[in-house]
Specification:
This protein is an alpha/beta fold. It contains 10 helices and 15 strands. The chain is 36% helix and 22% strand. Bound molecules: nicotinamide-adenine-dinucleotide and (2R,3S,4s,5R,6S)-2,3,4,5,6-pentahydroxycyclohexanone.
Amino acid sequence: MTVRVGVIGTGMIGQDHIRRLTDVVTGAAVTAVTDLDAARAAEVAARVGATVLPTGAELIHSPEVDAVLVTSWGPTHAEHVLDAIAAGKPVFCEKPLATTPEDCLRVVEAEQAHGRRLVQVGFMRRFDAGYRQMKEVLDSGSLGAPLIVHCAHRNPTVPDAYYSAMAAQDTAVHEIDVLRWLLDDEIVSAQVITPRATSKRFAHLKDPQIMLFETAGGVRIDLEVFVNCQYGYDIQCEAVGEEGVVRLPDPASVSVRTAGRHGTAVPQDWKARFAAAFDTEFREWTGAVATGAEPTGPSAWDGYAATVITDAAVRSLQTDGAVVTVGMKTRPAFYGGTA
Ligand code: NAD
Ligand code: ISE
């Protein structure tokens, strides 16, 4: 069966996922698109032979659409995801699931009322080969209990519209999700402290930021978010256990020796760094949809958890580094597991 996907939002990542669904993933086709910018939607639709529909609601309810991909702006996500649940259609929503915990909970409640999982949230790091290898090692117990995790999330630069709270909301949110999954543990507090700011940023921005998280099990996490590091897109993660350390591998890259130096390339953006993870994410999602199975990737609950933890980090940033307790609801049995 070919899964017919309708895409809401044909901007940067929408176009990348449309290319992926068309050229990389087998068993899927993009049959309908919509965008507030009708000209952009028409141009993208023409590339893949899709129909342009005027609104997200019409796309979701179209008989040409089996499953929905939401790649519009964050504040519009909840409305489209709720509409897809009401239509009983599987929906893949790029992060964030919603921009407020309340809207995330509306999705969680609607999905439970529907009775089976329909929602997957676009936290693609869970599909990255390196993070999956790290999880295997941690789950095997060979390192004993994890104690500390050191992380860094560095971008070469960000646009002028990026503001300080986005370091948590847009950037660290990926570590927040992947660390809950890696450790199978919940984050219970957040603290954000700011060293001297780099001169290579817009004046309004606090960059870099150091984020400290604690889990229910007592693991301490430190995360450097530095979005104007200049040299590349660099993701680091090292978990320290009682009996050893596991480290995220750098992406495979040839090593070059020339002019008295020895080095390897650093990716320049997240699209290149996580290209294979995005491919796997969509292969697995469309594979589940094709067989009528529930999605196994990040759930609506994971989307809720990420937004609540992100909010705690933003509150800490806004209160000069206070330690903020994460006020998360109890996880419903519907979503299984602990984190
Ligand atoms: P973008 O601005 O390039 O594209 C968004 C598009 O959605 C625009 O064309 C806009 O006109 C359209 N749009 C907005 N609201 C709409 C609505 N209600 N109906 C129809 N069209 C609508 O943004 P982007 O960079 O592609 O980001 C989109 C989403 O993807 C964001 O939520 C962002 O956080 C997420 N994202 C995720 C990753 C990742 O690594 N997983 C990376 C980048 C972006
Ligand atoms: C961007 O929005 C993403 O989602 C990327 O994956 C992330 O690494 C980057 O820092 C964000 O700005």
